[in-house]
Design a protein that fits this description.
344 residues; 14 strands; globular; Phosphoribosyl-aminoimidazole Synthetase, Chain A, domain 2; 2 domains; homodimer
């Protein structure tokens, strides 16, 4: 059943779930675009100056990205929210907003779950300034949700931020706190604590895509950025690899939530930051004067945590340094969200 | 793991499946766009005159859209092909090409399956003139594939074809044959026949999106079209509902493959056409002179099968007429591809 299709088959009296979903999405449904939900495809006009389309797709699967049932790590509303946040975050890391979302949902559960999922999707779409233009919903044995995000940009504006544009001498800086989402998940899984007021649990269930920070960085001339989805080591590793540089991170400079440091040991908190992922903060690499200018008006919005250096060995590397500047091997090196790796 | 991400984490020696997939996609990977696979998102420029984005998403799930194992209805290559064809067909029905694809794959199977799936995706993308700009692959218990298709159009060109623009007096016409895909599936499921040379089996496993026909119809001034994905009754019903008209289809005018009529009774063949779906042909509604002009150079490319009339009762209806013009109730009224309907 196509979510673009809001009409009922003429000869059927069945309740149409799509009407229900579009109704539930409320103001987050793209009703005022050229061709809104209700046809084979959606169509919308770009702002006059824009002639570049920027797009990405992101999928979350039950059992991999969340657990349901008696050990549920998220409510259906959280699943909807986080699916949108994670997808929007990929565009934020380019310095672009996600104007349009297309959803694909495979559901093993009933209407109540779908309603709650839609509520979370709607809330996140409204929060991040995105509109839902279409989608597809299919019955399956395993619940999953794919979110396609589509934005636009002008070729005459500042370049989109990429992974391959870090330069030796750049400062590496990060928004927000790292490790909070992984800490939140650990708290949820500790049966003794499931505090709704926990900022860590909120970070896990209701992450916020760093859209404004992405726009600010791009418009200030930052050329290199990535979002922290797989953990700092892996994500900074992507920059190192794509830019063919080494990157040194000073462990003690990584910003962490006060609650994380209260609930866990310093070593655990560092592991969460380096390997936990799903924080959806931005890591940027740029000359010091750009980072300084970004921080001029807002105190440490982009907190320096390291620097870009020449490749030391053959392969680009990320090194974590202690306070004496000695590099050490962290315990964890990134979570495997159902990713498929094959031995060489 | 993000298919946009082709780099290896700097500190890992694991074989990177994404490199393998992008390699496998060959010429169908969008290597020459502004930001090719390998970053948080992909970016591409629109043709100068274009300022409208047209997009849709379509999902296929194992057990619903195909069966695997000992009763397999499709090979992995077929699954890849048909996922792309079905998604591209939604844009064809608007009169637009799918320039860019984003894939999301959840796999329960191994590397060999993924390789074969990629081969089918590649072949279909090359056949339909689309390039793969990104994607996401996740391990799951149930295999599914979502394909996002993105095209563009100019506001100064002929309008996109929609469902809500059929007018009383229009002729309803269809491309190609109807019922072939359902007939092919029935043949596959009949253990006595699994003929690789069957045009019906090919129609089921390797359907062809009607892109050229869609462009031709739109450029000739056709305003109303839909692709036959759920079966003629349901899909024409969408037009009736959206345009608030009744539609009369003359059963004997529905074009059908000679093999279908040889393998099945006339009643079975009609059922396949009316309710089978997945033919990915186009149904258009337009004034007779436009249909005639479309058929001028190519004999019955758009074969008239019915007409658009005033709504007779309160609710728009699709009526099937026999050769005497008497309407009758067909046996089947559309397949339920895992669609979720609730009783009223």
């Amino acid at each position: 059943m196509n979510l673009n299709d809001t009409s009922q088959p003429a000869n059927f009296a069945e309740f149409d779930l799509i009407d229900r979903i579009v109704g539930r999405l409320g103001e987050s449904a793209a009703k005022d675009i050229l061709i809104p939900p209700g046809d084979d495809a959606a169509a919308w006009a770009l702002p006059d100056a824009n002639n570049m389309v920027v797009a990405s797709i992101d999928t979350m699967v039950e059992g991999i990205h969340w657990k349901s049932g008696s050990v549920a790590t998220m409510l259906p509303q959280d699943i909807g929210w986080r699916s949108v946040a994670a997808a929007v975050s990929d565009l934020a890391a380019m310095g672009v907003s996600a104007d349009i979302l297309l959803l694909s949902v495979t559901v093993a559960e009933g209407t109540e779950f779908i309603d709650d999922l839609c509520d979370g999707i709607r809330d996140a779409a409204l929060r991040f300034g995105s509109k839902i233009a279409g989608g597809d919903i299919v019955r399956g044995r395993e619940t999953s949700i794919s979110v396609t995000v589509i934005g636009s940009a002008s070729a005459t504006d500042k370049p989109l931020m990429r992974r391959d544009s870090a330069s030796v001498g750049d400062v590496v800086a990060v928004t927000g706190f790292l490790g909070s989402s992984a800490g939140g998940l650990a708290l949820i899984q500790r049966s003794d604590s499931n505090n709704e007021l926990s900022s860590l649990i909120a970070a896990h269930r209701r992450p916020v895509a760093s859209i404004e920070e992405g726009h600010l960085a791009r418009s200030s001339g930052v050329l290199c950025a990535i979002d922290v989805s797989d953990g700092l080591m892996q994500d900074v590793g992507h920059i190192a690899q794509a830019s063919h540089v080494d990157i040194e991170i000073v462990a003690s400079e990584i910003p962490q939530d006060r609650e994380l440091l209260a609930e866990f040991t310093a070593a655990e908190a560092l592991d969460f930051a380096l390997g936990g992922g799903e924080d959806y903060e931005l890591v940027v690499a740029a000359p010091r004067e750009i980072i300084d200018s970004l921080n001029e008006d807002s105190d440490l919005l982009f907190r320096p945590i390291g620097r870009v250096v020449e490749v030391e060995n053959e392969r680009p590397q990320v090194r974590v340094l202690d306070q004496e500047g000695i590099s050490f091997i962290p315990n964890r090196v990134g979570w495997d969200h159902g990713d498929i790796h094959e031995p060489e």
